[in-house]
Design a protein that fits this description.
By secondary structure, chain A is α/β, with parallel strands linked by helices. Chain A contains eleven helices and twelve strands. In chain A, helix 3 packs across helix 4 and helix 4 packs across helix 6. Chain B is built from ten helices and twelve strands. Classes of the chains: A alpha/beta (332), B alpha/beta (345).
């Protein structure tokens, strides 16, 4: 699908941890997660609510106010976690752009779509208002807004949900960012519109070589977009692998459980096998593996020490998972 | 198949008045959310109802349980027309039909204890003495997998999945015959969703329930449904037994909908090639003439714009599989996605 990836990762996140002070205690949202992102490829981060999948990426670009962040996030040779607010503002937009589930969190209701895109461009580049507006029209056309020269002067409420999502993507790609973080970008959309948006993101990636982080709870979206997948649970990485490898041989009991509990479109699989129980609280999360309370393979060691993320002994070195009790044949 | 019919809809229409604002004062228009829908629900079955937002599926569901009064047409519950019944006349039917909602947060009063929330139906319908009710509620809690000792807790003390169990306990309290489930698992995480789907399945077996199951998630609908109805802009486009609908969809809209579902496993049998619709569904305020899908349909011809197709079996299909399309797709036939309007090449 994409050209040969550059050897060095564009974004290299190491041992990222994010916590928040809350009235109930310290909430440990992300607890030591590492991942790399390569030009022209999509990393899918999949997890349920509270897994830390959104916080992990937002903390890198300074969007988690009041958070305590440790670790490293190396982007173009600089550690994002050490940058000032002004430096981070420069990174957002040109370096790393974000799109969210709700377009109205990025668009102001009282300004026209075109004005907002043009202002964003002018905040970063020395262009005239007319030039910026022309760029906005071009961008709206690029993301599939019909008759962009007219719709550029519409207000957000005049757009449908799918069109707003496209407008937000237009704004995000306006400065040709190296990295696009898409946080549940299609969750609020109907499937037919979702398919259009996912196709648009793939096309942009092929055209510009943008690296994408696709954050989602939907394994279907992962299947349609991701080259590599990171499975998160209760703030930790449970499994990390190329998509094909994860699909054919999921190793972690949580990943396996997710796949078994999901109804399939082809109805193969019969009765669903739910994962019993529910995710742990992130305030004083369990010691050891965060999944152990729901895991049928759990042993004593799982309750006391978190397992490292280790590669499968006989398999793909890029396929790593975090479990003390691997199934026979895939002992790390 | 001669299963007993529990609910019969005959040309049900639901209109809402809409004020459109203009420079010279408002104009009153009518939005037809449901535009003439007929189908039946058979005792003990699950009928899935799918469609995109704004297609009228939730409005239709509310007409079925008479939370809304249809503007025209009939809703027959167990043979009795309840579509225009008064509040008093509805009384005996209310306890026979219940509803489960999507939002397990919004549908529970946060200031009331779950025991009294679940016991509401008993209080409203005067079932049992106050002393007995607590035991009945605790039986229900056990039945839906809640700890009966949590009787005095508040909704906030429960997780999303558990709150949906509370909603289900309340819905089955009076042993209804019909439950309308409106996106019951859409707000839940995948690992929890399966718990609730299995619970609904068990309860159906134990209590002989009939479900009308509304969801935008086509994988979930296939999993739970015996038959599936596809809605588009207030009308039924196609209705068929699940397997027939998913494997041999006749209506181009059904095909497009199915082909748009993202799948994790590329082998996950998508019976049809990808059809990418462009644009959004048209406004129900001004639905297209003829077939409502024709402006987006890759197979549309002149007749489609002129004449509204009837919901009938296609030649070769049994009476169970009906399609509202002048040019339904044959087995294995693919939609040409070349130069046809409305489809991205």
């Amino acid at each position: 699908m994409t050209g040969s990836p550059d050897a060095a990762p564009l974004l290299d996140v190491r041992d990222l941890a994010v916590s928040f002070n809350t009235p109930d205690g310290v909430l440990e949202a992300v607890r030591g997660v590492s991942f790399g992102l390569v030009r022209g490829r999509t990393l899918g981060i999949v997890g349920e609510s509270g897994s830390g999948k959104s916080v992990a990426t937002q903390s890198m670009v300074g969007l988690t106010r009041g958070a305590r962040i440790t670790g490293q996030a190396l982007f173009e040779g600089r550690d994002l976690l050490t940058l000032s607010a002004a430096e981070l503002r420069a990174v957002r937009g040109r370096g790393i752009a974000m799109i969210f589930q709700s377009p109205m969190s990025s668009l102001h209701p009282l300004y026209t779509i075109g004005w907002q895109i043009a202002e964003m461009i002018r905040a970063h580049e020395p262009v005239s208002a007319a030039q910026a507006r022309a760029r906005a029209v071009e961008l709206l056309g690029h993301v599939g807004i019909p008759r962009p020269e007219r719709r550029v002067d519409d207000y957000p409420h005049q757009y449908s949900g799918g069109m707003l999502q496209r407008a937000m993507i237009a704004m995000a790609i306006a400065l040709n960012p190296r990295v696009l973080v898409a946080d549940e970008p299609t969750t609020a959309l109907d499937v037919t519109v979702q398919a259009q948006i996912l196709r648009l993101l793939r096309r942009l990636q092929q055209e510009f070589g943008t690296a994408i982080i696709m954050i989602t709870h939907d394994l279907g979206v992962i299947g349609e977009t991701a080259h590599d997948v990171l499975v998160m649970y209760a703030g930790r990485a449970m499994e990390q692998a190329p998509r094909q490898s994860l699909l054919r041989t999921p190793r972690h009991p949580y990943t396996q459980g997710l796949l078994r509990s999901r109804p399939r479109l082809d109805a193969i699989g019969g009765r669903l096998v739910p994962i019993p129980g529910q995710p742990p609280s992130l305030i004083a999360p369990p010691r050891g593996c965060p999944f152990h309370e729901r895991c049928e393979r759990s042993i004593d060691r799982c309750t006391s020490t978190p397992p490292p993320l280790a590669a499968v002994a006989d398999g793909d070195a890029a396929h790593r998972f975090s479990c003390w009790v691997p199934e026979r044949g895939d002992a790390p | 198949m001669t299963a007993e019919v529990l609910v019969q809809l005959r040309e049900v229409v639901k209109e809402f008045p809409v004020q459109s604002r203009g420079a010279f004062g408002g104009r009153s228009e009518r939005l037809q959310a449901v535009a003439g829908v007929s189908f039946e629900l058979r005792r003990g079955e699950t009928l899935g109802l799918v469609g995109e937002s704004g297609c009228g599926k939730s409005t239709l569901a509310r007409c079925v349980v008479r939370l809304l009064e249809p503007s025209a047409g009939q809703v027959l519950f167990d043979g009795h027309d309840i579509s225009t019944a008064s509040h008093a006349e509805l009384g005996p039917y209310r306890r026979r039909m219940q509803m489960i909602f999507q939002d397990p947060y919004g549908s529970l009063n946060p200031r009331r204890r779950v025991g009294s929330i679940i016991g509401d139906p008993f209080a409203i319908h005067g079932v049992g003495l106050a002393g007995e009710r607590r035991r009945k509620v605790q039986d229900l809690m056990a039945l839906v997998g809640l700890n009966p000792e949590h009787y005095n807790r508040f909704p906030a003390d429960f997780s999303g999945g558990q709150r949906q169990r509370i909603g289900i306990a309340r819905a089955i309290a009076l042993r209804p015959e019909l439950i309308v489930c409106d996106e019951p698992v859409s707000a839940l995480d995948v690992s929890i969703q399966a718990q609730i789907l299995n619970l609904l399945d068990e309860l159906q077996g134990e209590l002989g329930l009939t479900y009308l199951f509304i969801s935008h998630d086509l994988s979930v609908v296939r999993h739970v449904s015996d038959r599936v109805a596809v809605m588009y802009l207030g009308r039924i486009a196609e209705i068929a037994p699940s397997e027939a609908l998913y494997e041999r969809a006749r209506h181009p809209y059904t095909r497009a909908l199915l082909s748009a579902v993202p799948v994790f496993d590329p082998d996950e049998g998508r019976a049809h090639a990808s059809v990418l619709l462009t644009g959004d569904p048209p406004s129900p305020l001004d639905p297209p003439r003829g077939c409502r899908f024709h402006p987006r349909c890759p197979r549309a011809q002149a007749r489609c714009a002129a004449e509204e197709p009837q919901l009938i079996p296609r030649a070769g299909d049994g009476p169970e599989h009906t399609t509202a399309c002048h040019f339904p797709l044959a087995d294995g036939e693919t939609m040409s996605t070349g130069a046809a309007p409305g489809v991205t090449p």
